[in-house]
């Protein structure tokens, strides 16, 4: 480890000297300028806030204070150390009254002050708005230096209830701190007053691709063997800066090298969000030559371009995507509906390979192992759990906006997934299949419909924000038509979710402004577990509305689905003929109906008094 860390320090020095830095610390920083920005969440009456500082110098204190305004006066609530490396402080306030809005300020040395608003819980709002962003490249060669003011101004006008940055906030692979400061100061006028979920993807930790292998150490920057190339302390600093303000992890036990975990849930405004780490536990590629020596005669690699390869051979049943710990978390989260009417799963990337051209539109890629289409068994296992809670999925990473419905055993038997466009990106991707999709909606483009992705996973494509023909000719130069952000609007009374996909430099409040082709898209919450081929249990007629209904297999007690229903009438769907237990209600004493038989057609009705 010492040799690796020394090599890393030399690498930083040499690359900085040869290439130069496009960013540097602001000159002439004064003591009153020490606080750069802060991010916070509120979950189950606990506030967690990470304050980010510029370097602490001249024997200034490595401590800061969080104050709340009460009756016109600032009242100190807690202190926190400023941790190095990274210069971050983590504040925590338990027993928080989330029914009221409150002004806060971070104080350093009684000279630097940073103010914002901790929102009240919008649990009584009819409509909940989430803004989702990803891939924040800043390099001038592809227009990444375009100011973010258009996005920030739109978000301020939109006034979302929650922000989600799904990863790749930083693209520099050696100087996370400088580029993280740039990200935070670019977006601070919206994040200072809005709860923010921020997670970590491969570029944030200094890698082009990441197969985390439960925190293992990778000997190469390509990372194909699995694990992190940068020293563990570098990874810890990144995660501390970007995720320490999230609610406490479901299971805080670290992975290998002492690297922490942050997968957790957040309840806000009547929506429950599962926050996943779909890179950290993902298996590396070293075992691929053992399973398919004819495909990998010279060792493993991260992509396949040969169209004759049968990619079904590439599935390794023991390979992991989410890992057992996160699957257990999702199972437990499925039935936790306290203070929640709808649910959503937040990920770094889509659980499929929804691209077939990458970099330039000149050579079709057959299998891209960086996508979560691999490993197929791990992908299907994860989707089989996620659909149980009727949750859509939202992610980023791909530099290509897509909206798909996943399939496990059959097309359409799992959740919808929305990938937002990049804030700015160089590495373009396209979804441009040779043959039209099957079962397309009327008048839909040929690239929509039912497909097998590169790993032979079943996907139903509804919309794609492909780059234009002009960009194809230019070889992938940034155009603001393929950059942007997503907006997700939840109607809690209707139980519908509308997905907006906006480009850059567009006034989203102007009724004449247009989104990417194919958007907006509105679905029902119940569409996320609405297989084309299913079996029916009896219709439930309940005496009270909005009850939680959980379906289990009678023999194994395995959860099939769990949802807070709309109204009083609900007919559960299942995937197999058989016997089931229906549980109605929350807590430890739900009403249970045993040995309920599913049928292909079922007109039976059960009246249940709550």
Automatic annotation (TrEMBL):
<dbReference type="InterPro" id="IPR038607">
    <property type="entry name" value="PhoD-like_sf"/>
</dbReference>
<protein>
    <submittedName>
        <fullName>Metallophosphoesterase family protein</fullName>
    </submittedName>
</protein>
<dbReference type="InterPro" id="IPR029052">
    <property type="entry name" value="Metallo-depent_PP-like"/>
</dbReference>
């Amino acid at each position: 480890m010492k040799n690796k860390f020394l090599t890393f320090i030399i690498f930083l020095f040499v690359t900085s000297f040869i290439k130069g830095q496009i960013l540097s610390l602001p000159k002439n920083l004064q003591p009153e300028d020490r606080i750069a920005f802060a991010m916070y969440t509120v979950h189950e009456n606990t506030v967690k806030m990470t304050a980010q500082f510029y370097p602490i110098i001249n024997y200034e204190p490595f401590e800061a204070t969080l104050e709340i305004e009460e009756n016109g006066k600032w009242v100190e609530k807690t202190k926190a150390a400023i941790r190095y490396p990274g210069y971050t402080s983590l504040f925590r306030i338990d027993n928080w009254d989330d029914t009221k809005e409150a002004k806060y300020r971070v104080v350093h040395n009684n000279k630097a002050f940073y103010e914002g608003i901790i929102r009240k819980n919008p649990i009584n709002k009819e409509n909940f708005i989430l803004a989702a962003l990803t891939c924040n490249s800043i390099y001038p060669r592809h227009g990444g230096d375009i100011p973010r003011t258009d996005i920030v101004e739109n978000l301020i006008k939109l006034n979302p209830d929650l922000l989600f940055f799904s990863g790749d906030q930083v693209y520099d692979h050696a100087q996370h701190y400088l580029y993280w400061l740039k990200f935070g100061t670019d977006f601070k006028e919206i994040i200072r007053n809005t709860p923010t979920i921020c997670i970590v993807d491969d570029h944030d930790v200094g890698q082009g691709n990441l197969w985390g292998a439960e925190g293992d150490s990778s000997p190469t920057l390509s990372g194909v063997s699995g694990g992190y190339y940068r020293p563990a302390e570098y990874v810890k600093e990144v995660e501390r800066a970007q995720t320490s303000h999230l609610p406490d992890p479901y299971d805080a036990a670290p992975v290998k090298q002492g690297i922490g975990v942050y997968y957790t849930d957040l309840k806000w405004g009547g929506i429950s969000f599962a926050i996943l780490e779909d890179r950290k536990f993902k298996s590396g590629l070293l075992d691929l030559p053992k399973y398919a020596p004819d495909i990998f005669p010279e060792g493993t690699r991260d992509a396949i371009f040969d169209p004759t390869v049968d990619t079904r051979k590439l599935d390794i049943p023991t390979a992991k995507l989410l890992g057992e710990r996160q699957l257990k978390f999702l199972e437990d989260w499925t039935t936790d509906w306290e203070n929640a009417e709808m649910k959503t799963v937040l990920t770094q990337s889509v659980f499929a390979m929804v691209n077939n051209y990458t970099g330039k539109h000149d050579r079709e890629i057959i299998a891209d192992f960086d996508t979560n289409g691999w490993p197929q068994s791990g992908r299907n296992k994860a989707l089989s759990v996620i659909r149980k809670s009727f949750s859509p999925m939202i992610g980023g990473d791909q530099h290509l906006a897509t909206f798909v419905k996943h399939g496990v055993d059959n097309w359409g038997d799992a959740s919808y997934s929305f990938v937002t466009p990049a804030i700015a990106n160089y590495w373009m991707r396209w979804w441009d299949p040779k043959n039209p999709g099957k079962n397309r909606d009327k008048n839909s483009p040929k690239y929509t419909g039912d497909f097998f992705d590169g790993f032979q996973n079943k996907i139903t494509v509804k919309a794609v924000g492909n780059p234009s023909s002009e960009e194809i000719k230019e070889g992938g130069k940034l155009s603001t038509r393929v950059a942007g952000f997503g907006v997700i609007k939840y109607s809690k009374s209707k139980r519908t979710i509308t997905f907006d996909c906006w480009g850059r430099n567009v006034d989203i409040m102007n009724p004449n402004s247009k989104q990417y082709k194919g958007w907006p898209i509105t679905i029902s919450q119940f569409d996320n577990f609405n297989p084309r081929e299913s079996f029916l249990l009896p219709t439930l007629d309940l005496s009270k509305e909005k009850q939680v209904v959980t379906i289990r297999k009678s023999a194994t007690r395995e959860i099939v689905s769990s949802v807070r229903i709309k109204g009083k009438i609900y007919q559960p769907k299942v995937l197999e003929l058989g016997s089931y237990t229906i549980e109605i209600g929350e807590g430890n004493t739900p009403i249970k109906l045993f040995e309920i038989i599913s049928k292909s057609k079922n007109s039976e009705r059960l009246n249940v008094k709550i």
